[in-house]
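User
New here, help please:
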Amino acid sequence: MLCLALPQMGIAAVSSNLETKLSAKPSAVVNVFIGTGGDGHTFPGATRPFGMVQLSPDTQLRHFKQSYPWAAGYRYEDDSILGFSHTHFSGTGHSDLGDVLLMPYSGETKWEPGYPERAFSGYRSRFSHQQEKAEPGYYAVKLLDHEVDVELTASERVGLHRYHYGKGVEAKLLVDMRSSIYDYKSKNLWSSLRVRSNTLVTGMRITRGWAPGRQVYFAMQFSKPFQQREIQNREDAIEYRGFAGPGSGAKEKVKVEGKALVAAFNFGIPNDQSLMVKVAISAVSEEGAIANLQEMSDWDFAAERQKASDAWNTALSAVSIEAAPDMRTKAYTALYHSMMGPSLFMDIDGRYRGPDNEVHQAQGFRFHSTFSLWDTYRALHPLLTLIQPTARNADFIQSLIASQKVSPEGILPVWQFHGLETWCMIGYHAVPVIADAYLKGVTGFDAEAALKAMVSSAEYGAYGGLRHYMQYGYVPTDLEPEAASKTVEYAFDDWTIARMAEKMGKLDIAKKFYARAQNYRNVFDVNTGFIRARKANGEFRVPFDPAVSNFGSDYTEGSAWQYSWYMPHDNAGLIQMLGGDSAAIAKIDQVFDAKVDEKIYAHMEDISGLIGHYAHGNEPSHHVAYLYNYFGAPWKTQQRLQQIMDSQYHAKPDGLSGNDDLGQMSAWFAFTSFGFYPVAPGSNEYILGRPFLDKTSLNLPNGKRFVIRAENLSKANQYVGSVSLNGKPLEKNFITHTQITEGGELLFKMQSTPNKNWGSQSNARPYTQTKYRVD
């Protein structure tokens, strides 16, 4: 029995047996509040690994003035909660979701949330972090103004609430369908509430937020029948009232429609002071949501919480970590955040809604959505190929291919959530996700269909200046915004198509896209050493300042200082254009060592976590510290990684220097703490950095184990003295995917001074296209 049955113990108290059992598991060291402050934009609520429901508190409204700070609905700095909704993004820089908000309360019914700076002005309630508890799969808080203890847990498709009210008070519940309260007229296209009985309410809403025309349906089941209910459409101040006395509620059914629906339910004075609510969601229909309630067949909250905890411990146990407590917490929390998305997005019967906004049936796979691909192709998806079952990775790829087949444009997702395309960010980065998985041996999908979808995406001229890219060999800045960034990102995506096509024996396709992969050279200015945008007439744009960054300019959320390193498939070409190893090392040193007035990037909220011009809070910089390995100076990579880890990650709410972006920031941390990183997904190589954990064991999907040990690891010993693989010296400064999946042990011997000889020779360096190009 948990604490809410014993209110005098407080919400943090649970049975000692359950706490003891949980404490021995990886989930016990996860701090779900990391990233909920600052610009991390994570949420602390209850969800399952890759779950469809993210049941979490909201502390602020979602409207345009607050879309960035409250993208996840919750900020640790806040001191009031306006309710608990069932869908959230983890770490994005854009606000949406927050569907089906529930707020338990007692006393007077207030129909508006009120203002955080004015106590008692609405239905929101103050809370204290001292009376808040969260762990993977579970969240609890005391609502101070309503005298209600709240507990939340979730299955994949169902959120479960348990409320404990004060003695002798009526148990009441508000359901707000608006989510974006003050801009519902522009966001909510339509919504409905249907009272089917005094224990079952269903409904839906259609929004035109980040993904236009998004539909979400729900089924809400109560553990006790309500005695009274009131529904209002706050848009027109039209009130719909209905009262159901004991025994009559099931007979009286009502459906209300509008853009601003709010409902209040009164359950009387419960003998046990408690109420439980299940909420299942669906993208298909109310009937689909009702069917999804089958995932949770009874009302055993403790059992459901345990199932959620078990699911997280199973997922987190893919990696066994030995490290100091603070580092172990950061590492397991990073792994936790790396398993939020892509999220399941289909009903229990396999139906889902696709990018054509029509309902489809998944055959032989589980449809997932929420693909933040511009971010996650870099490290998150490569990480998931190591720590998730092959079937899960195949589900991701089948979901991408299924989306392409019904896409109105016939291309793979760019940034998709809830099945719909947002067209956010640039590139066709579903391509490297598929290619990387295929080249690593992930099966369970149609490779021919996948390659066809990849080529179709790369040749869809109406998207992002691709027509011009194919015509000129670069994206002209006078014809398309963000031209420099688009050119180099398209070139990398093209290289991954070539790699997969070559592996499949499609040499004509491989030759074509290997050639396109060299297009990054067309925007590299050898005179300045920077990637620069060119006009259609071939001239570089002038005047030129490598620190300039603006929305819609030549670079995407960055400047030339950040983007001039983006040819991860051909760093030998970069070295050549910069004038050799020494020049390349000096140039990258300038990135980190520059004395930068942070005001020059202050207008770009995504450019954060600055070390000189290096911006760890955003993705274009994420591979840069590892480039020293390509230049023959891996000891400098080790030095920079220490600098980044010390300054950019902390085990506290503002412990992420930028948006977690569906796990990319966390995946970077996870890989770096292990001791290696996938600079070029699709190369099947991981660049060796230095480990930050004493011992890491990867329990691989194929059943084998790969162990990474750090001997003599300490704060002072930040440099690699030597590396051995399975007892034999490893002189190369990278390892391959095959070496990992074969199992074994990678041993780093750490020391206080740099070993400038290890990994510095030309034959010790990683793959680049120039070095091994197929003509």
Summary: Residues 3-30+96-314 form a domain with the Beta-galactosidase; Chain A, domain 5 fold (CATH 2.70.98.10).
